[in-house]
Amino acid sequence: MVYSIVPPQLFSVEDYEKSSVKHMDHTAWSYLVGGSADEITADKNKCAFDEIQLQTQVLRDFAGANTRLNLLGSTLPFPILLAPVAWHKLFHPDGELATVQAASAIGAGMVVSTQSSVLLEDVAENATKPLWFQLYIQPDRMFTAELVKRAEQAGYKALVLTIDAPISGVRNREQRVNFHLPQGISSVNLAGMKRPAVHNASLLESPLFSGQLESIPTWQDIEWLKSITSLPIIVKGITSVADVEQAITLGVNGLIVSNHGGRVLDTLPSTIELLPGIAEQVAGRVPILLDSGIRRGTDILKALALGASAVMIGRPYIYALSVAGAVGVVHLLNILRAELEAAMVLTGCRTLYEIDRSLLWKS
Ligand SMILES: Cc1cc2nc3c(=O)[nH]c(=O)nc-3n(C[C@H](O)[C@H](O)[C@H](O)COP(=O)(O)O)c2cc1C
Ligand SMILES: CC(C)CC(=O)C(=O)O
């Protein structure tokens, strides 16, 4: 069922999550909510925010209060971006066209996946606000270069290079429901791409270690990418301090602390636990974004207090997309924005730039 107005009794991300079960089939639901293996990291991403407690700062002056920020040359009205999520048509018949309508209407940053179910050009044509393009480097580097050129020509303002999923995670939940794309939904941006021949490994060989890893991305690909595009490059999937230095040395323009929503390597720490160490290493040299587990405005406040400039959400906006299309996505963003504003007022922060560790309670 597709609503043109927001259905009643939806007040939080959790309400949308519960409602969305009824708006998609069980296979798509399993793909959406699932994490890798035992889903320990996926669960931890959310619980770790609850472990951090806040401290009020009262009787402050709020004249001129706002949630605006400047990020890589764009002004955003609030620090919540839509993370790249594959195949929106699994969740709503209009797919990414509904999502981009919502993002444009409310002015939210949106990152369009390489694996979108609507052509990257068609998404851009329907946007009235700047978009970023998420890049999965493909085994065929010529095709990858073409993809980057297409994103540039379509007007995308930055490339978000995902580095944490060179291979698929152990997705038991997907295996249990035999997840596969239904007819009519595909990675349209990759149509016509040559795929490497599948090497049929014998029982004695490892399918992964017998050829499949030869074309996976390496740090050299960032140098290569910089040589073929002038778009800013933001690296998504940073979970280690060692990788920070490598990425900054190569001249990337931003970092996203992300464990892919717990969908790739299980038992990684939550991103909010990783953030302080990574922010210390970055020391303000490039902006940091964080995703994985954001479900409340207070989560956003905590991420900003610990060093992020903005956050991205993945599953939450897809829940809303499935329940009420573009209207749902706008409503969900408004819920999170209002929760963030309330949290800012109650912790005494007039602007995002006043959010710091002083609002975290220390026992
Ligand atoms: C269904 C689904 C598909 C995703 N597809 C992509 C993708 O195509 N590219 C990518 O970089 N990340 C992808 N991600 C990861 C998200 O960009 C983001 O890191 C993650 O969802 C954040 O966690 P959250 O869902 O708890 O907010 C996907 C996540 C989900 C849930
Ligand atoms: C097509 C997939 C690789 C998309 C993805 O990143 C995910 O499902 O987490």
Structure commentary:
Belongs to the FMN-dependent alpha-hydroxy acid dehydrogenase family. It comes from Entomomonas moraniae. With 363 residues, the protein is an alpha/beta fold. The chain has one domain: Alpha-Beta Barrel (TIM Barrel), CATH 3.20.20. Helix content is 39%, strand content 10%. The chain contains 13 helices and 10 strands. The protein has an 8-stranded parallel β-sheet with strand order 3-10-9-8-7-6-5-4. The protein has a two-stranded antiparallel sheet with strand order 1-2. Strand 7, helix 10 and strand 8 form a beta-alpha-beta unit. The protein is globular, with a radius of gyration of 20 Å. The model has no long low-confidence stretch (mean pLDDT 96). The structure holds flavin mononucleotide and 2-OXO-4-methylpentanoic acid. The site of 2-OXO-4-methylpentanoic acid (COI) has 5 residues, from loops.
CA(first)-CA(last) distance = 48 Å
Q: What's the architecture in CATH terms?
A: Alpha-Beta Barrel
| Overall strand count | 10
Q: Note the main sheet.
A: 8 strands, parallel
Query: Briefly, what CATH class?
Result: Alpha Beta
Question: Biggest sheet, strands in spatial order?
Answer: 3-10-9-8-7-6-5-4
**Fraction of residues in helices?**
25-40%
Q: Determine the strand fraction and express it as a percent band.
A: 5-15%
Which structural class do the helices and strands define? alpha/beta
Element pattern in H and E: HHHEEEHEHEHEHHHEHEHEHEH
Chain-averaged pLDDT: 96
Our count of helices gives: 13
Number of domains: 1
CATH third-level topology: TIM Barrel
pLDDT < 50 stretches: none
